[in-house]
Amino acid sequence: MADLRVNIGALALKNPVMTASGTFGYGLEFADLIPLDGLGGIIVKGTTLKPREGNDYPRMAETASGMLNCVGLQNKGVDYFCEHIYPQIKDIDTNMIVNVSGSSPEDYAECAARIDALENIPAIELNISCPNVKDGGMAFGTTCQGAESVVKAVRERYHKTLIVKLSPNVTNIADIAKACEAQGADSVSLINTLMGMAIDIERRKSLLSIGTGGLSGPCVKPVALRMVWQVAKAVNIPVVGLGGITTATDAIEFLMAGATAIEIGTANFLDPAVTIKVRDGINEWLDAHGCKDIHEIIGCL
Ligand SMILES: Cc1cc2nc3c(=O)[nH]c(=O)nc-3n(C[C@H](O)[C@H](O)[C@H](O)COP(=O)(O)O)c2cc1C
Question: At CA 27, angle to CA 26 and CA 32, rounded to 5?
């Protein structure tokens, strides 16, 4: 068995496979289906300072090789998370990472500071890339200035591993990644969903309540892979790659393009055990190719 351990800043992962926010609940929902401690990390649902209702229904639509969603960060807020969810997940033997979103830099920083106080949450993933909310979200992730303002504010109040999740809905994602690195991000993860839409031609209406939604699943993989490759060359901090990963081959492509770890999102809806299968598949591939350590293939392209 090859050594699958990797590090994201100060965060040690037993293997590079994590779950993508919004597609794996709080992990608990999958506890009867897979061994949660077999994952490198679980990135839980998007959390905001105040509770959010999310968008009206319909907020999901199937597409060729993927899906659109406009859930809109529905969650009960950070205080509810700290009081009711954290006690249930704090003893899961993997890195439990909270995905944080907000509508102003101060908002993000306050939410992050409250999570900083939780002993068994070793990292946060800052979502500056949600395309489905009006206030904030993706607005911060589409300019260097916007990204800098959030990362700077959070860095002042959050002292553990800070991963910043980037939006693919930009012209030059490497510039945004460099701006995050300069403000003290320990890692960047990419990609969040690509903005898209679908229309019901009989009703002459969008299939989604707010008109547009975020595209995810296998159809986004080539775009995600290209962006991970570009960002990995541009920054010195570790890159977490995601977007359409469904198989071990997909994951290995991201690792070869320069990702130190990967996340799996939409594929969990098709096969709740996909994360464990991808982890095992990476290991088998390394063994079959005589690699003793996963670092032999990270960035080898
Ligand atoms: C239903 C749904 C909800 C999501 N919610 C969040 C979220 O709360 N925060 C976030 O950063 N990304 C969210 N995402 C984006 C995913 O984490 C991921 O970046 C994206 O789906 C691409 O990966 P995939 O193709 O493996 O799904 C969501 C995606 C889906 C499909």
Answer: 135
CA angle 103, 113, 71 (to 5 degrees): 40
Answer yes or no: are the C-beta atoms of 236 and 209 closer than 8 Å. Answer: no
Q: Is the pLDDT of residue 45 over 80?
A: yes
Torsions phi, psi for 183 (to 5 deg): -95, 5
Mutate to test the pocket of ligand 1, among 55, 129, 192, 268 (most ligand atoms within 8 A of CB): 192
Give dist(CA 182, CA 176) in Å, integer: 10
Pocket flag, ligand 1, residue 220 (CB < 6 Å) = yes
Residue of 70, 111, 130, 180 marked catalytic: 130
For 71-124, the DSSP string reads: ----B--HHHIIIIIHHHHTTSSSEEEEEE--SSHHHHHHHHHHHHT-TT--EE
Given this model, what pLDDT does residue 139 score? 82
Beta carbon of 55 within 6 Å of any ligand 1 atom: no
Choose among 25, 58, 46, 45: nearest CA to 197: 58
- The span from the CA of 100 to the CA of 98, in Å, is 6
Please, what is the average pLDDT of the chain? 96
CA–centroid distance, 219 to ligand 1, in Å, is: 14
Q: How is residue 249 written in tokens?
A: 């081959």
pLDDT over 70 (residue 175) = yes
With the most atoms of ligand 1 within 8 angstroms of its CB, the residue from 18, 21, 47 to mutate is 21
pLDDT by residue (tens digit) across 132-157? 776 667 789 999 999 999 999 999 99
Ligand 1 binding pocket includes 127 (Cβ within 6 Å)? yes
Report pTM.
0.98
Whether 130 is catalytic is yes
Upstream peptide bond of 51 is cis (omega within 30 degrees of 0) = no
